[in-house]
Amino acid sequence: MRSRTRRQMRLRGELCVGLASILSFASMILLIFVHVGQINTSTVPRKISMVKINMSDYTAAVQATISNANPVFGLYTNNASAPLQAQAGLRQLYEFGFYSYCAYVDGKSGICGNQTVGHRYTPYDVVTADMAQNYSIITQAIVPENTFRDSKYLGDITQGGYWLILLATICTALALITGIAKNHLTFFLSAIFSIIGTILLLIGAILWTVAVKKSEVINTAVNPLNQQPLEIIVSQGNGLVITWIAFACLCASVFPYFIRCELPIILKADATLNTLPFFQLLHMAWVEGRKRQRIGFQIDSTCDVNTDDTTLCISFYDTRLLFLERPLSVGV
């Protein structure tokens, strides 16, 4: 009977670790996809971005600034390989990732900028650097002073968000690796790495979300000359959505890691536990929020320790609490 119970408990532990590992692995894969977004124009990186800027309808705003007798000419370029930030012409679409940004003359054809660790999101500087000088002067006059133009603010918070997400990715990988070994300490380390990674990923995702939402103020900006929309459209990319999904997976992995990371404890039979670590409290299914509730524990014969008549080897892995002749006094 006891052997069957131990097998059941071992199976439960393996299921918890398996679930946690799957969630951590899913989170890590998602974060890897986010990291490769917009590093080049190949199929996968091209489709993943943190934020997009659509400039395809900006011509009307520029035309309203000059007389109709002088049609807008040379604002855009159709050359997909034209260098960026060289006044070679505006592109239809700009997409930003963690390490670079890419500009596209259509849905597929485009070029990416130089790759930089922790690339700063500075949309106004990027688009005006592609315009001929006369059009950049016009843009400076008609684009209001708002967050879209605040390159320092947007660059600082997105760069900070990148570093936090990078550290979260490392913690996720460490949680996955340490969770492979069947050891109490490694399970505990996996739980700690998952918690740290979850917190870092949450803050990093929030920073990027704030940057995108703040820059979306340009979507409703109008030309001061005719009160017509500027038609500069900022929208979040699928990379930001993937980041939040990765956060959800990593956050969900914390609980099964904690359930599995039970630690055997040596206690005298009349011992009092005044404080219990959270990862142990999770296994005390029948402990309620009462002061010094008296409960008993099943002696776990599988503990790898030497016990005597006055010492109990207690494993919180087994949540079946059986009363002994001399139950322990537990303060919670």
The beta-strand count equals 10
Distance between the termini: 31 Å
Task: Please indicate the count of domains.
Answer: 1
Secondary structure class reads alpha+beta
Helix count?
9
Residue share in helix:
40-55%
Unreliable parts: 1-13, 261-332
General shape: elongated
What integer value in Å does the Rg equal? 29 Å
What is the averaged pLDDT score? 77
Strand order of the largest sheet: 4-3-2-1-5
**N to C succession of SSEs:** HHEHEEEHHHHEHEEHEEE
**Portion in beta strands:** 5-15%
Largest beta-sheet characterization: 5 strands, antiparallel
Protein name: Actin cortical patch SUR7/pH-response regulator PalI
Pfam family, one: SUR7
Transmembrane segments: 161-180, 187-211, 239-259
Keywords: Membrane, Transmembrane, Transmembrane helix
Explain the overall architecture.
The model is unreliable at 1-13 and 261-332 (pLDDT under 50). This protein has one domain. The protein is elongated. By secondary structure, it is α+β, with helices and mostly antiparallel strands. The strands form three sheets. A five-stranded antiparallel sheet has the order 4-3-2-1-5. Helix 6 packs antiparallel against helix 7 and helix 7 (184-215) runs antiparallel to helix 8 (238-260). The longest helix is centred in the N-terminal third of the chain and has 35 residues, at 2-36. It is 45% helix and 11% strand.
